[in-house]
Design goal:
Elements: H1 3-29, H2 38-68
Helix pairs in contact: 1-2
């Protein structure tokens, strides 16, 4: 893999990663509960688990759609 192609892929992944981190941070903070209480920790863990489930379902559906249209699904390297 050439350096230019690698830099192009990194250039694409940086905004995606930043948006993902921003979404995770907003999701974890929803509920307006302090994290110092047990209720706050339960709320945060509930938000985190629901976010992880939704992201996993989205990735599986994306991979399924790619395989249906004939796109070769595999590792990037």
């Amino acid at each position: 893999m050439s350096t230019v192609k690698l830099l192009g892929q990194i250039w694409i992944l940086i905004p995606v990663a930043l948006l993902f981190v921003a979404g995770i941070s907003l999701t974890l903070q929803s509920g307006h509960v302090r994290l110092s209480t047990s209720q706050g920790l339960r709320q945060m863990m509930g938000n985190l688990s629901s976010t992880a489930i939704m992201v996993s379902i989205g990735l599986v559906l994306m991979l399924l759609a790619q395989s249906v249209v004939g796109y070769k699904v595999g590792a990037a390297w």
